[in-house]
Design the sequence.
């Protein structure tokens, strides 16, 4: 009876050792993929167009257009479309 418990205890420690080795392997392998960044992605940002449809929005445009023009983005354009407004 004691022999069976000793064998089971040894098998349990072997199982834990293999599990630890396997978890360390997966952690090393997948952490490289999870934290990898392409250097080109950080340097280059695509140009952006901001399109605003405005109908009688003089006061809102006067308040919000300076905020849009003061962005810290390398290349963008703002297009305001007049939607038959009176102002």
Sequence:
């Amino acid at each position: 009876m004691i022999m069976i418990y000793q064998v089971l205890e040894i098998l349990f420690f072997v199982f834990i050792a293999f599990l630890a080795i396997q978890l360390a392997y997966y952690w090393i392998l997948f952490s490289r993929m999870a934290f990898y960044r392409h250097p080109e992605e950080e340097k280059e940002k695509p140009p952006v167009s901001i399109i605003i449809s405005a109908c009688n929005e003089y006061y809102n445009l006067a308040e919000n257009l300076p905020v849009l023009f003061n962005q810290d983005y390398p290349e963008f354009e703002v297009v305001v479309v007049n939607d038959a407004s009176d102002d």
About this structure: The helical segments are 2-34, 39-43, 58-69. The chain has a mean pLDDT of 87.
